[in-house]
Amino acid sequence: MPSGYSFRQMDAADAREISGWRYEPPYDFYNGDADPDDLAELLDEERRKDVYFSALDEEGDLVGFFQFEKTSETMDVGLGLRPDLTGRGIGEEFCSAGLGFARERLAPRRFTLSVTTFNERAIRVYERAGFGRGETYMHETNVGGYEFLFMEREA
Questions:
Q1: How far apart are CA 140 and CA 129, in angstroms?
Q2: How far, in Å, are 24, 35, 99, 137 from residue 111 at the CA level?
Q3: Which end of the chain has the lower number of beta carbons within 10 A, N or C?
Q4: What is the pLDDT of residues 35-92, one digit of tens each?
């Protein structure tokens, strides 16, 4: 792994902690309780199993999470970094560490993800981690319609 991050199956305590994370606007779109369906999935042990993984730093502190959903040879990735760690220049290393974990454990041929187009900070991180820009599309969420950018890269 390219960093000091470690990963484990997300447990109930981590899920509860993540659900309480609060991001500054406009990133509050990513707050755990912004979408009740996403929150229900995060807190449901059966739905988390083999999909949600906690990311820990070298001291064992929860610093983020990854969500991996594999279809055929493609792995769709969701991820989140603890709010106090965003904007500090560690996003590329964090993202790359999670992709390395998924590559070793789940052996996808390619990674995909979707990100809101207003989140230019994350888009830059994903591009530095090797993702290319794809199509944009509108997606209706519980808090309104948002434009998303599809991104992909080889595993």
A1: 27
A2: 28, 24, 8, 18
A3: N
A4: 888 889 999 999 999 999 999 999 999 999 999 999 889 999 999 999 999 999 999 9
Instruction: Give the pair of three-digit tokens for residue 47.
Output: 């739905």
* pTM of structure: 0.92
Decide: 63 and 94 in contact? Cβ < 8 Å.
yes
Residue 61: exposure state from Cβ atoms within 10 A (0-12, 13-18, ≥19): exposed
Q: Please list the helix, strand and coil fractions of the chain in percent, rounded to the nearest 5, in that order.
A: 35, 35, 30
Q: Pick from 16, 66, 65, 63: which is nearest to 43 by CA?
A: 16
Judge if the upstream peptide bond of residue 25 is cis by omega within 30 degrees of 0.
no
What pLDDT, on a 0 to 100 scale, did the predictor assign at position 148?
97
The tokens of 98 are what? 């999670």
Place of tokens 């929860």: 62
